[in-house]
Amino acid sequence: MNKFIILILFFVFPIAFADLRVGFYSSSCPRAEAIVRQIVQRRFNRDRSITGGLLRLHFHDCFVRGCDASILIDSTRGNQSEKAAGANGTVRGFEIIDEIKKALESACPSTVSCADIISLATRDSVAMAGGPQYDVATGRRDGVVSRASEVNLPGPGSTVSQALGAFTANGMSLNEMVTLLGAHTVGFAHCSFFRDRLNNNDPNMNPALRAQLGRVCRPNGKDPKTFLDQNTSMVFDNAFYKQILLNRGVLFIDQQLALDPLSKGFVTTFAGNDASFRTSFVDAIVKMGSIKVLVGTFGEIRKNCRVFNRA
């Protein structure tokens, strides 16, 4: 009887347990990855900060409902989507995903998911910024739910323990958290994300950096941006870890990585060994990209990344 039930389940849901795999589109859309890479390269040539933007977009997508491109959905009168959540107010990169999707729909209609586009575009932008090259397994499908109320992400003022709670809830370890936050080496933040550290004269911020950021973040009603890695701001390397060991972390959570006994050992290791950081980063971002993915017959392949097909 048990074997019979298992056999029935296998035939009823044969595709539901399909796995992601490298080269998923090799037959259905052979040029898919080349199209993604070409468009990302054009954008990177104009704006090298797109690497940080795509990394953040990828992270904010995967940590809500899994890597299902739910962050790309626009709000409607009847639904406030993830984009409308405060934590996603400064997320960017939506336009390049739209551009890639348009090109892929022209080449291979209703074939390549928006979720896979995010993963592939992020992978390519990291390599273009001098980061490691790695394979991305594809075959994700797009989610059909996106709600602002479900967005609960660790913020810039989080402690290490608070941030770790969000990572462990998504199956990620402390090592992987410290590794993925190292992507801040190519990121930037608005002054509103760390202005309290300046106003309170945070003793854990290097005085020269505090003075520099004070000039950038003048109280004039504007909210300018600054790089999180003040050394090699546009290069994907391990300089971020070296900076925070010198108390030159811009965000509270970044500086806490170098101060908290839980995470300091990993920071010290990555600061002294760029190869170790790169290897750990590849492992961590590939793992992150598989969080609660939809495969087989679950979800859909959106025709427009901003709108559910049924809309």
UniProtKB/TrEMBL annotation:
Keyword tRNA-binding attached: no
Cellular localisation: Secreted
Key words, A-Z: Calcium, Disulfide bond, Heme, Hydrogen peroxide, Iron, Metal-binding, Oxidoreductase, Peroxidase, Secreted, Signal
List of catalytic residues: 60 (proton acceptor)
PROSITE patterns named in the record: PEROXIDASE_1, PEROXIDASE_2, PEROXIDASE_4
Lineage: superkingdom: Eukaryota
CDD domains named among the record's database cross-references: secretory_peroxidase
Residues annotated as site: Transition state stabilizer: 56
Cofactor note: Binds 2 calcium ions per subunit.
One of the Pfam families matching this protein, by short name: peroxidase
Annotated residues for binding of substrate: 154
Cofactor: Ca(2+); heme b
Cystine bridges: 29-108, 62-67, 114-305, 191-217
Example GO BP: hydrogen peroxide catabolic process
Residue positions binding heme b: 184
UniProt xrefs under PANTHER family: PEROXIDASE (PTHR31517:SF59), PTHR31517
Family: Belongs to the peroxidase family. Classical plant (class III) peroxidase subfamily.
Its job: Removal of H(2)O(2), oxidation of toxic reductants, biosynthesis and degradation of lignin, suberization, auxin catabolism, response to environmental stresses such as wounding, pathogen attack and oxidative stress. These functions might be dependent on each isozyme/isoform in each plant tissue.
Protein's UniProt name: Peroxidase
Species in which this protein is naturally found: Psophocarpus tetragonolobus (Winged bean)
